[in-house]
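Q: what does this look like with zinc ion bound?
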Amino acid sequence: MQNMLVLGIETSCDETGLALYDSDRGLLGHRLYSQVEIHAEFGGVVPELASRDHLRRAVPLLTELLASTGCNRRELDAVAYTRGPGLVGALLVGAAFGRSLAWALGVPAIGVHHMEAHLLAPMLEAQSPELPFVALLVSGGHTQLVEVRRIGDYVLLGESLDDAAGEAFDKTAKLLDLGYPGGPALEAYAASGDPQRFQFPRPMTNRGGLDFSFSGLKTHAATTLRKNHNDESTRRAVARAFLDAVVDTLGIKCRRALEATGVKTLIAAGGVSANQALRKRLHEVAANVGARVYCPRSEFCTDNGAMIAYAGAVRLQAGERSGLGFGVKPRWSLEEL
Ligand code: KG4
Ligand code: ZN
């Protein structure tokens, strides 16, 4: 197959990510600008501020990326940008930037599915999984178990019926005054919490099926805080009980997904898969059923340009292209691919 140097552009939410992926040489470099500080004072992502900041960062990040990799933009063979799902304004910035850059350079462009990119992120690592695999996708907007038979052949095994796991982390962290984004803060805070003091439910584990529900855990955390003296050790114990419940629940469902499909490889991706307790649990679960686990390095669990460049390269090498009349897809199911 012909070698390709692909620029990847991620702007679906609050991170501007750019990367260069070469189909022969692998990942050449990547750059990320996180908008956390902009949104922190509002306790969550403000879509309009996100769009404006992507606009500010995209060109300087590209200049930096090209300089750090010693590449010239005229060497690019294609441009990949996130087409969805995500915030419409934020997606439009990356799509307009990527599509017009490709047009100016006279090279093809491709609009990438953000969740497919998360799902393929483990392929960026030296130890990469072989197909077929079961993917646990746990991000701020999605919690899904997907059977990946081939690239582009995705069977949704189960998903969250209400809040995504990351959303539950963020909302519970807010209850505990841990700021935004809540996932990493809650993980650190829970580390010294008493694991015995509170027992939270493991939602939807006592019946069959692979769907999830996490909104009740956040309510459980709020009720527990109300009923107990709200001091530091109580708050840490609540954080710990919440974390243990999410990790247990995800572990139980992953085990069931491996058993139901007979697949021997599990991958985890998306922001929540950066969580160390979850990664440890998934390794235990997989070992129990004779399967192996692959996760991207932590910085490629959360949003990044490298996964977009990689997913774009895969799609481009299969001959896919997006036309000049591009559009973004704020809602876009993996199964439509
Ligand atoms: O994949 P991602 O970066 O963006 C989306 O596509 O949504 O995921 C962000 C989510 C946030 O909800 C964040 O709190 C959560 O991932 N997250 C974590 C951790 N790091 C990020 N949750 C738990 N533990 C972490 N270490
Ligand atoms: Zn994401």
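The mean pLDDT is 96. Residues 130-295 form a domain with the Nucleotidyltransferase; domain 5 fold (CATH 3.30.420.40).
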